Amino acid sequence: MLNKLDTLESLVLGRRLGHSLDAPFYTSPEVFAADMEAIFYRHWIYVGVEPDVSEPGDVATVEIGKASILIVRDDDNEVRAFFNVCRHRGARLVDEEKTTVGNLVCRYHSWTYGLDGHLVHAPHMGSDFDPSCKGLKPVNLRSLEGLLFVCLADNPPEDFDQLAARMAPYIAPHNVRGTKIAYQSDLIEMGNWKLTLENNRECYHCEANHPELTVPLFAYGFGFSPEEMDPIDLENAQRYDALRATSHDEWEKMGLPSREIEELDTRVSGFRTERLPLDGDGESHTMDTRAACSVPLGRFSTAKLGGLSFWTQPNSWHHFLGDHIVTFSVLPLDEGRTLVRTKWLVNEDAVEGVDYEIDRLIEVWTATNAQDAALVEMCQQGALSPAYEPGPYSPNTEMLVEKFIRWYVARMTDYITK
């Protein structure tokens, strides 16, 4: 609860640069409600991939706060989004996370909707009833080369198309639309959604907490302090910098855009991308750094293409490799619980047990997600303590956390001042 001295406006406008947020941002139900209104009901939210609805009639449901959303592939193979609410008396149409239908039928009174959202059958409504104005309410949807984003607002941020134009050349070679979901994990972290994002936006904690992830992934890719390193770490960091430069040159000669684009706090639809080299044999996010799937993505002839990292504000990060893709969406449940949904995608022609093994495919990120969940819970417990006060971010390793918080504060400032 907010105390008598705190208001949302005073908290937002009083945020200290370079420091974590005041405790109510992580613990207050009132701030959480404002987060949903200002952030998750107004911005482009990553919800899944086109392979979630791979065939006409496929339906996937996604919960964003109080809103339940249907993602549907219609008979013309177009992906659409609607609110999961019957236009008769408001019953929820689909309860399952995924299903396949011919039409969308409300089991309450049998109102029936086509896959394009139009009402096609409403029994016993009389001759004066006009079904044309009672179709399902649409939700704004964009597919970024197969990554699905929705916006619940009537007037969504207009800059998403600019983001898409810049990111499409990076993502397209991995051919998301030509993949299938090999595995999905839903993990509830016992912490505020902003702590989940803060934890993701830095690798300051990686060496001490992620022994699996730091086998293929260089922690140096997200900042370091050379003056504080011992000779071995400094040598590894310098090796990484050299590998990064030569790898970018090689990948771009292959037609793979690779260099950093960083706009996390400079636009409403903030994002960041860069293709990063991997350690060891450098093929994939696995414990031996070799490909987890023997069938490459897209038209790749090799899996040794580094890992393309793509982040979006406020709720996603993704890793595109030569042999598979890992996508993450963050969906707040309440002020102290957050759903982290992870999907592992492989070439649609790959066969489980022949071309890939699930355990090996998911090993690194399953371990990393569990470790991150423990860290987020630890921070949530600290934020609940009367001793908590905002602490300083490292300027060398937590600069991307600061950019996330600046983006968040700017969006909240817009919310309270307009």
TrEMBL record:
| Ranges where the Rieske domain occurs | 46-150
* Pfam families, A to Z: Rieske, Ring_hydroxyl_A
Instruction: Name the keywords, alphabetized.
Output: 2Fe-2S, Iron, Iron-sulfur, Metal-binding, Oxidoreductase
Name of the protein in question = Rieske 2Fe-2S family protein
Q: Which GO terms describe its molecular function?
A: 2 iron, 2 sulfur cluster binding; iron ion binding; oxidoreductase activity
**UniProt-listed PROSITE patterns:** RIESKE (PS51296)
Task: Give the CDD domains listed for this entry.
Answer: RHO_alpha_C_GbcA-like, Rieske_RO_Alpha_N
- Requisite cofactors: Fe cation
